[in-house]
Amino acid sequence: MKIKVKLFGSLTTVVPGYLPDKGLDVGLPAGSRAADLLALLGIPHPRLATLIADGRVLKPEDKLSSKSVINIFHVMYGG
Amino acid sequence: MKIIRVDMSKKSICVEDVPREYMGLGGRALTAAIINKEVPPKCDSLGPENKLIFAPGLLSGTNFVNTSRISVGTKSPLTGTIKESNGGGTIAAALGHLGITAVVVEGKPAPGEMFILGIDEKGEASLIKADDYKGMRTYKLMEKLIDSFGNKISVMCIGPAGEYLMKSASIQTSDVDDRPCRAAARGGVGAVMGAKGLKALVVDRRGKSADAIANPEAFKEAAKIFAQKLKENPFTGQLLGNFGTAGILAAINAMGAFPSYNATKGVLDGWENISGEALSKVMKERGGGPGHMGCAQCAIHCSNIFNDSKGKYVTSSLEYETIWALGGMTGIKDLDTIARLDFLCDDIGLDTMNTGVAIAVAMDAGYKKFGDGQAAIGMVEEIASGSEMGKILGDGPEAVGRHFKHHRIPAVKGQSVAAYDPRAMQGLGVTYATSTMGADHTAGNVFGLYMAKKLDPLKPEGQVAASRGSQIAMAAMDSIGLCILAAVALASPEAGAALVQAISAKIGRQLEGSAIAELGVRTIKMEKEFNQKAGITSKDDRLPEFYYKEALPPHNTVFAVKDEELDTTLAV
Ligand code: SF4
Residue A65 falls within a domain, yes or no? Predict the structure, then answer.
């Protein structure tokens, strides 16, 4: 399946040539999970990454849907 | 270790050793102790019986990173509760270098009298007439103070809003570049300073009489470990330096919790224009930038400098909460306008959050259109003019709501909420409702727990415990003088141990690991005791009704934590 991914903060530099306006189209086997996407993209400190889709924070074991845009952040905190 | 007491009625100053009962306390814990013991709880917050206390944290003035944080304590004219408004800049370090544990301002001068309290490099304090500075905005004031006192000063000061005794008046404080862009913003502390007839506190930065550190080697080692852990964390080591606190905007918006158009939506259309990423790009293109060291001793550099399209300085320290209040809440999606509004608030001496939300309530009530940047600028200038409408706006969202008879007022105990909607982040609602000082995200922000997948933000379960834990931790951080952004490092056990070790080394007594939480609990207990004596009850610990009745899109949820549960939050 093809998934639209958007990277934020320092993660925008993880994928060479990443364009924030366009995001990434990533190909993954059907049934892939949040953790698979992080591994494929080579996100550093994957334990400290957060995926948000359709307003919800995904757990590593959550299945991805090709209908959703997956936003990826490093874990952040409020000041 | 000394306390400087300034009586504004008699214009007298005395210096005393720290009394035994206040020993070992700093920052918020100390202001809570002094207010609880010395201020009549039912007093008029703008009267002579109230006190205004400036207390650096326990570690301020040492070389432990991120410890130039000052607690401004008083009884708040905005909330009617005890208040600790925390500020950065350089003044906490400056006071620490002079071995000053607190400055306590009491009494009240004759109407029209105004003074500057100067503290020189030897720690000698004096009151200087400030007639020439009356009515002055803070940037101009800062220039004049540097002309008079030299350029090695740290300043806390008020602008016109404080002199008008407005409830949104802040106390601005100078950053490392001598700009009054940082603030102890909340609770109307600037109005208390105005009522005391104090235009500015000016402290020489060259003090060399800091309290001795009992075990310097152990302290140095602990400080090194903590700084290292701060650097290793992607949030404090990379994100804040590159994007500032606005780096969290996209995530909160993606979670449907970014209160927009006076809290009628949880996602802002056009948020990309005001995100941390957009801000960082614009600032870099114009020769300013993120990564600015706002406060002394800072190793994170969350601050920034925003220039206009010609490269001319507009404002500094443009933060997430400010972009939200003056942008998301008002529907203004233009960074130039938001930066201008931020500058005006700093210059006039206003809490950007209470002011932005006041403007949003006025817009929601139909006074002006959402998204009208010029109207927002006009409203802030109206505050500076001291007109009738300006006074209403300058007193914050509740005053505006009352004036327009508008029901949707996102405030608790008169103080505006912050940039996390309690219907989509229920734990923040618990903190807003139950904090000892009105709606205050810094009192116990649990957003990080949602990001770390430890708690579901939409479900009421677990939110009270999360808020309680965070409120205790934050009360401790504010007392230690550690910036709450640096407290993120405490996720690492080594950093937690290093912080305990540093405090132990400073005071010469080995503390248990539980000491930090105990300090937080003790502080909150003192604050609660004062509030109870002031007549605050659990009925005051509630969110405004609309949060329970009006569902917030896109999740279409309401605030669902039960009252009985809320009442257990700070039963510490
Ligand atoms: S991280 Fe930001 S608020 Fe905290 S000390 Fe540094 S500049 Fe000040």
Answer: yes
Largest separation between any pair of C-alpha atoms in chain A: 39
Question: Are A10 and B234 in contact (CB < 8 Å)?
Answer: yes
Tell me: ipTM over 0.95.
yes
Given CB atoms, is B353 within the 8 Å cutoff of chain A?
Answer: no
- Interface membership of A22 toward B (CB under 8 Å): no
Is the pLDDT assigned to residue B572 strictly greater than 90? no
Ligand 1 pocket test, pick from B64, B65, B66 with the greatest ligand atom count within 8 Å of Cβ, gives B66
Query: Closest ligand 1 atom, CA of B302?
Result: 2
**CA B210 / ligand 1 centre spacing (Å):** 22
d(CA B313, CA B288): 8
Q: Ligand 1 mean position to A67 CA, how many Å?
A: 39
Residue A79 lies in a domain: no
Choose among B77, B76, B83: nearest CA to B55. B83
Residue in the block written with tokens 């359709």: A54
CA of B482 to the centre of ligand 1 (A): 9
Let me know if B48 is exposed, middle or buried by CB neighbors in 10 A (0-12, 13-18, 19+): middle
Which DSSP state fits B170?
-
Indicate whether B174 pLDDT > 80: yes
CA-to-CA distance for B128 and B513, rounded, in angstroms? 45
Query: Which among B246, B247, B254, B251 is positioned nearest to B554, based on CA atoms?
Result: B254
Cβ of B558: how many Cβ atoms within 10 Å?
A: 17
Ligand 1 binding pocket includes B239 (Cβ within 6 Å) = no
Q: Do A79 and B319 touch (CB under 8 A)?
A: yes
DSSP per-residue letters across B190-213: HHHHHHTTEEEEEEETT---PPPP
Distance separating alpha carbons of residues B64 and B244, to the nearest angstrom: 21
Distance A11 CA to ligand 1 centre (A): 22
Put simply, the chain B residues between 507 and 566 with a CB less than 8 A from any chain A CB are 554-555
Phi-psi region of B83 (alpha: psi -120 to 50; beta: other; left: phi over 0): beta
- Does some domain include residue A68? yes
Q: Round the average pLDDT of chain B to a whole number and report it.
A: 97
CB contact B214 to A (< 8 Å): no
Number of domains within chain A: 1
Shortest-distance atom of ligand 1 to CA A79? 3
pLDDT value at A79 more than 80: no
Domain coverage including residue A6:
2-74
Q: How far apart are CA A33 and CA B36, in angstroms?
A: 54
Q: Could you give all domains of chain B from N- to C-terminal order, each with its CATH number?
A: 2-204 (3.60.9.10)
Which pTM value belongs to this model? 0.98
B477 — pLDDT class (breaks 50, 70, 90): very high
- Residue pair B497/B513 in contact by the 8 Å Cβ criterion: yes
pLDDT tens column, A42-59: 998 888 899 999 999 999
Pocket test for ligand 1, best of B65, B301, B485 (most atoms within 8 A of CB): B485
